Amino acid sequence: MVANHVSWLDIPVLGAQTPTTFVSKSEVRSWPLIGWLAVLLNTIFLERGAHQASACARQVGDRIKRGLSVVIFPEGTTTDGRGILPFYPRLFAAAQNPGIWIQPVALRYLDQDQPCPVAPFVGDDALIAHLLRILRQPRLVVEVHFLDAFPAEGLSRKDLAEGCRTAIAERLGVEETP
Question: Between β-strands 114-115 and 104-111, what pairing exists: parallel, antiparallel or unpaired?
Fold first, then answer.
């Protein structure tokens, strides 16, 4: 599965929808409580900037071969949900194995039918402070749109990344920001 990334909330939201595992930046492992949960969920940790994308892709491929679902957030960071950043194609390497299908997933957080200003976890936001804001939020709605899955075979990593990004942006009605 390939999803846009708005918040750490994306993980429990998607995990509640279907049994899956995630690819996450390595720093998450040291976060209070969330890091512990990530380890319990068999998260694949990627150390950014360490040229580990190939090793990560092998781990993703191994899990898919065992019949497990894996979620990647190819923007590489979270956004405010009003646009979609470019998707990094390297994380799509595992999908180039025969028989792999890609499931784009569009996530949106709403408050009174408008983008929720509280849900996004962006910039230098502190986890505990963000959690407290979420808990004080009187109403938070999340939309999860599982888009049409498609076979990845024969497509380049760049084409897979752009195809998923475009499908998610169109479903959410947001711009693909540079």
Answer: antiparallel
